Amino acid sequence: MFLTISTTGDEKTPATDLSFLLHKHPDNAQAFSTSYGTAHVVYPRADAECCTVAMLLEVDTTALVRRGKGKGRGGAPDAALAQYVNDRPYAASSLLAVALSRVFSSAIRGVCNARPERVQQPLPLRVEIPALPARGGLDLVRRLFEPLGWTVAAERVALDGEFPEWGDSRYVGLVLESDRLTLAEALRHLYVLLPVLDDAKHYWVSADEVDKLLRAGEGWLPTHPEQKLITSRYLSRRWSLTRQAMERLELVRLAEADDSEVEDLDNAVQDETGTDETGTDETGNGESTTGETATGETAAGSGVTATGEGAAEDRPVPLAVQRRDALVAALKESGAARVLDLGCGQGQLVQALLKDPRFTEIVGVDVSVRALTIASRRLKLDRMGERQASRVRLFQGSLAYTDNRLKGYDAAVLSEVVEHVDLPRLPALEYAVFGSARPRTVLVTTPNVEYNVRWETLPAGHARHGDHRFEWNREEFRTWAGWVAELHGYTVEFIPVGPDDPEVGPPTQMAVFTLNAKDSTKEEKAA
User: Fold this and answer.
1) Is 102 helix (H, G, I), strand (E, B) or coil?
2) Cα separation, 54 vs 125, whole angstroms
3) Residue range 35-40: average pLDDT?
4) Fewest CB within a 10 Å sphere: which of 22, 60, 176, 198?
5) How many alpha carbons fall within 13 Å on the CB side of residue 309?
6) Three-state DSSP class for 446?
7) What is the Cα–Cα distance from 112 to 367, expressed in whole angstroms?
8) DSSP code, position 434
9) Are 26 and 51 contacting, i.e. CB atoms less than 8 angstroms apart?
């Protein structure tokens, strides 16, 4: 198994800087032990004008079989023989990728104390791999490497040069050239894409492979046009790991598009403590557990007592529970059967809707992977019966962008969501929901800032939650809702949630948007 990496230079920037970046002296022939054999590193040429490093991986096929823990044993005799007589010692694969990571680990991380200024500088690079398995052919090789800035020269390797009528093998001879990439970027591309092209791994793929993929794919994988194929093949087509990786990659893409940090988007949940009905984690969809409950929402001035079985006498009903009950009641009133919970957070509303069979399809959407993970555990999706599971879906998405997956639903809920959006970005959310998705009914709840004076534990002038970008009074909310309704062809009415204080109004205000009849008819015809 063989690979070479070459670069060119001059007296000012000698090509031998490659040896410093790789941390391997060009005058020495070095050998490195790996789990499956020995990796030899030599420099066929090393001068100011050109420097070439070569890696030869000498695979121990016996060790490969032993470490495979007997896979394939007990089958046909020729299958047992294939464990020892195969292409593993000769064709570039995950074995070579692991050797690259083992031998050039500092270079892959972009660490070089001797030439730190060269680490981030693009180099004129040429990579040659004489035998590379390519399940997908030359077209796939180009689709994987060309979007990353490589010029690709690849040709099929014949099964036997003396018998051309036998046709081509699944192997290609590959030459990659680029003057736009750093050495670290080039090595990370090879580390990921060699096993992807082979479509096989020689070791068990566990959950930590997702982290390896994301580290090696940083800066290029989130935007690669073949992202899904790369992720699936790298993770040996393990569905659960592929889904986890795709969700995290989507979060990275959204963060880059919004010019923000991943942590700023994936902040919907700070912890998973608390119970469902006490208010300790019931601060509304998309909010954390430290928000409105800290202000005393579960008790302050509600005057409402719990009536459920086993409830303590005169125990106040948490505002979050009152809000959820109001949303469910409004959805029933609208006659909705297929419902979107946009910014579903930990899935409390989804869980409530699942208890009523009139809601035949319930979709929870959130940008936070953590929130969706907790929602999945709360709903016990992995243990849910087939009929019940067919009614619910959770997927990742950002309300700052239009999404065809949101179209065609009877109703959408934005519960305690809008106040978490920066005001300049609020029009994007408005269009994504009211202009693009256009459900017949949209329910929006948001805090009434006027009521904040009733929270004894909330300092004057403070928002109910640290992530709130704003909090509207009743007039501001009505003005915004009226403008959105007029712009997108809806009518709107307002419902108080919680005790309606004669001076400052309710703690939560809810707007019920209904698509105008003529617009609704147009939508149905278009569908």
Assistant:
1) helix
2) 13
3) 86
4) 60
5) 0
6) strand
7) 37
8) I
9) yes
Report yes or no on whether pTM surpasses 0.90: no
Do 145 and 225 contact (CB within 8 A), yes or no?
no
> What is the token pair recorded at 357?
């069979």
Of the candidates 370, 380, 309, the residue with the CA atom closest to the CA atom of residue 350:
380
Dihedral (Cα; 174, 175, 180, 182), 10-degree rounding? 80
Return the number of other C-beta atoms located less than 10 Å from residue 102's C-beta.
Answer: 13
Report how far apart, in Å, the C-alpha atoms of 5 and of each of 9, 133, 479 are.
14, 19, 64
CA distance 6 to 128: 9
Sequence-distant (≥ 6) Cβ neighbours of residue 355 within 8 angstroms = none
Q: How far apart are CA 104 and CA 112, in angstroms?
A: 11
Parallel, antiparallel, or unpaired for β 441-447 and 490-497?
Answer: unpaired
Q: E strands along 270-391, which residues?
A: 338-342, 361-366
In the three-class reduction of DSSP (H, G, I as helix; E, B as strand; rest coil), residue 168 is classed as strand
Q: Kindly state the average pLDDT of the residues 453-481.
A: 85
Share of the chain above pLDDT 70, in %: 81
Task: Give the Cβ contact number of residue 475 at 10 Å.
Answer: 9
Calpha distance 420→399 (Å, rounded): 11
Question: How many residues would you count in the chain?
Answer: 527
Q: Which residues contact 523 (CB under 8 A, 6 or more apart)?
A: 438, 440, 515
Q: What is the edge-to-edge ordering of all strands in the sheet holding 441-447?
A: 392-396, 361-366, 338-342, 411-415, 441-447, 508-515, 490-497
Q: How far apart are CA 282 and CA 322, in angstroms?
A: 10
From CA 199, how far away is CA 147, in angstroms rounded? 20
Q: Is the pLDDT of residue 367 over 50?
A: yes
Handedness of CA 273, 276, 280, 285 (dihedral sign): positive
The answer to whether 295 and 464 have CB atoms below 8 angstroms apart is yes
Nearest to 46 by CA among 30, 24, 67: 24
- Residues contacting 126, CB < 8 A, separation 6+: 4, 5, 6, 7, 175, 176, 177
Cα–Cα dist 329/194, whole Å: 55
Alpha-carbon distance of 365 to 417, in angstroms, equals: 12
Tokens 């020689």 -> residue: 202
pLDDT score recorded for residue 418: 94
The encoded tokens of residue 498 equal 């919680």
